[in-house]
Specification:
By secondary structure, this protein is of the alpha+beta class. Helices cover about 40% and strands about 15% of the residues.
Length: about 290
């Protein structure tokens, strides 16, 4: 019996190895191609490929093709290419939600909205980017963290489209929104208090990539800014700093300046590595 178990184990190992060996030199394959190259039945290839993808050793592209995942690339060849945002974001959100026990989101600008993925506290996995998963920009912390470092023309387009009031606390006056964004650019922190969801506050920080360009923003949803702000900021700052460095290939990251109609307030920006500075009064909170 023991011999049969060892033989079965070797058989599974051989099949997995055959699949992984098809992903050389950055190649990508469909499931049918994987089965053919590995010499496996399509059902076996599907089962093992799905298992490898669940462990992030393989990645499934939007077109259905598979490629080597980040851990496999790092083990295999010390890939010098920095990881892509979609490769690292799920793990970052998993850690944030676990440490803070709050809903964690990562958002990217998508026209005049925020495309996002999120991790709820608990066993449910990180969600996926989908066309339906969008948030408004102006009343959310993640949206303001993005908008503050976006071109000024995008701010004006957002205002021209109309600042809808989602709750009685939503900022709807253009000048108040502009002031709130100026504070975000100075402090690297965006906060909202009951502006989008009546019972929830948000705190968010931007994520920068190579060249200091805005890439994304990380957000935590908290019940009370007075009690949760400092702890949430600390977790977000560490996560954003780490993710920014990874996306920049390990280099230090400094935000690219935002010019145009809304220049930064006088004086140097706070250093991202030192963490954000939150003023005593943050425009737009309350």
């Amino acid at each position: 019996m023991a011999g049969n178990s060892m033989e079965a184990g070797r058989s599974v190992t051989h099949k997995i190895t055959s699949i992984l060996l098809t992903f050389t030199e950055g190649s990508e394959h469909t499931l049918t191609e994987i089965a053919q190259l590995a010499g496996l039945p399509i059902s076996t290839a599907h089962r093992l490929t799905s298992e490898l993808a669940s462990r992030r050793l393989l990645e499934r592209a939007p077109d259905g093709r598979y490629r080597a995942g980040l851990p496999l690339r790092m083990i295999g060849a010390g890939d010098p290419r920095p990881p892509a945002l979609h490769e690292r974001a799920p793990a970052v959100l998993e850690d944030l939600a676990k440490v803070t026990r709050c809903r964690a989101r990562l958002g990217v600008l998508q026209d005049l909205e925020v495309g996002y993925i999120e991790k709820q506290p608990g066993p449910r996995p990180v969600s996926s980017f989908t066309p339906a998963a969008t948030l408004p920009v102006h009343p959310t912390a993640v949206g303001r963290a993005l908008l503050a470092f976006a071109p000024p023309s995008l701010v004006e387009l957002t205002i021209l489209r109309g600042l809808r009031a989602y709750t009685p606390h939503t900022i709807t006056a253009p000048d108040r929104l502009r002031r709130a964004l100026a504070v975000v650019r100075l402090t690297r922190v965006a906060v909202t208090s009951f502006e989008f969801e009546a019972g929830a506050c948000g705190v968010a920080v931007p994520v920068f990539g190579a060249g200091g360009e805005l890439v994304a923003a990380l957000e935590l949803t908290v019940p009370d800014l007075g009690r949760e702000l400092q702890a949430g900021m600390a977790a977000l700052t560490i996560a954003a700093r780490s993710l920014s460095r990874e996306l920049a290939g390990g280099a230090g990251v400094q935000a690219a300046p935002v010019g145009g109609m809304y220049p930064l307030p006088a004086g140097p920006l706070p250093d991202a590595a030192a963490g954000p500075v939150v003023p005593d009064v943050v425009e737009g909170v309350g």
